[in-house]
Amino acid sequence: MSFFTERSGELYVEDVRLNDIAEKYGTPAYVYSRAAFTQHYLAYAQALGQHPGMICYAVKANSNIALLNLLARLGAGFDIVSGGELERVLTAGGDPKRIVFSGVGKTAQEMAKALKVGIYCFNVESEPELELLSRVAQAEGLTARISLRVNPDVDAGTHPYISTGLKENKFGIDIDRAPAVYRRAAELSGIEIHGVDCHIGSQLTELPPFLDALDRLLLLIDNLAEQGITIRHLDLGGGLGVTYKDEQPPAVNDYMDALKAKIGDRDLALMFEPGRSIAANAGVLLTKVLFLKPTEAHNFAIIDAAMNDNIRPALYQAWQEIRPLKPRPGKAQRWDLVGPVCETGDFLGKDRELVLVEGDNLAVMSAGAYGFTMSSNYNTRARACELLVDGDQVHIIRERESFVDMIRGEHVIEQ
Ligand code: LLP
């Protein structure tokens, strides 16, 4: 069910007309639906059901503290990849005991902080990281619970930049090497082996790559059991895709049922790190048409949102639907929707059939994940505001940046 719907010829989010939001708060603006976030998270929690485990929302997808707070109140755990994300979760009231810490480049300081607040588990991505974690834990007089992120060498069948489970990727530890690294972990002070983890990529639209990865992890778990190493949880990462255009990703329920069927009666808690499938279709990016510039080669519609607001089209040739907030009658033309940034790659959509007039407001759909979090100040453009709609209420959950915000911490030199 979508919470972004058309009513009497206009686009709404929950019970609020998006044009009212664009007029009151200005554009570009990220707008999220509380009901959508809630529903997408609960789909995971309910599909997990009574099976022991945790749904650890991948903070990188959308890290606004209001959204983290909502998820924390629903009982979510969190998957973090930096000290900054750890602070966000704690600030938002997240439970440290429900945090897993992923990422290939954790620093000693980040490890120490995570140990002190008592996170659930470190997803260790390399042998030197394991050695450092052991040293940091000993220095703190604490024990780090770990799982190794193994690289099962399966092709996720997704865009190469967001595919992570192949041998050639920088992530995780080669699955063939994993038993030796687990043996080493078993010897190290300050380390307690707890799980096995993998994350094979993002925006997966089919089950087989997940199931192939699971088969390989289960073989590894059996192999470790023979060596006296007990694995208590299995973390399958994130990666479940969403519909941007016509993709038909598996439903969370079907995904989880397929996994549970393979796991059978093994005594394994199940962990997940979904990001996109919770956030993407819970948000849109509102933008206004500044100028229409038809040329011989293309019809350009210059809009006030740019690659600094949403880099996905420029970076991955990602396709996101672009809808007028109040569709106009008339003959549609093909438009390239381009931003004000001085780069040819600055577009949010190409060849879109639309009826456009200068001043029209548009929504870039499915923008709740990897939208604001990947935004930047390139071209000294202030980052957009973020708004959360709850029924007929609109809450400002992040103010639009000011010029002063943008130059905070910069200094001119005296001579
Ligand atoms: N766990 C780990 C270890 C990850 O690296 C990621 C995403 C996730 C979980 C969450 O994956 P999801 O459920 O969102 O697929 N910026 C790209 C996506 C990069 C994903 C990075 N890792 C995009 O906009 O498509």
TrEMBL record:
Any GO molecular function: diaminopimelate decarboxylase activity
Chemical reaction(s) catalysed: meso-2,6-diaminopimelate + H(+) = L-lysine + CO2
Binding site for pyridoxal 5'-phosphate: 239, 273-276, 370
Residues where substrate binds: 276, 312, 316, 343, 370
EC number: 4.1.1.20
Orn/DAP/Arg decarboxylase 2 N-terminal domain boundaries: 37-280
Domain Orn/DAP/Arg decarboxylase 2 C-terminal residue range list: 30-368
Protein's pathway: Amino-acid biosynthesis; L-lysine biosynthesis via DAP pathway; L-lysine from DL-2,6-diaminopimelate: step 1/1
Subunit structure of this chain's protein: Homodimer.
Function statement: Specifically catalyzes the decarboxylation of meso-diaminopimelate (meso-DAP) to L-lysine.
Record family assignment: Belongs to the Orn/Lys/Arg decarboxylase class-II family. LysA subfamily.
HAMAP family registered for this protein in UniProt: LysA
Protein name according to UniProt: Diaminopimelate decarboxylase
Organism: Gilvimarinus gilvus
